[in-house]
C-alpha cells in the first residue's frame, strides 16, 4: 500500500459509531478486508487501533500435516 499523502486533507473519523457506520458502507464496495483497509485509509484519517478493533481478524486455516504411512 502506498503511503498516504500528508498534505491531502481527509475527513477525520475518531468517533467509533461514525467509524463503524463508515466501515459498513465501505464493506459493501470492497472485495476483501485488505481493500477495506485501503479504501478507509485513502479516504479518511482514522485511529488504526480503533479500526483494528472493529474489523475482526481473519483466522488462517490450519495447515494439517499429511499422514505418513
TrEMBL record:
It comes from the Bacteria. This is Uncharacterized protein. It comes from Methylobacterium oxalidis.
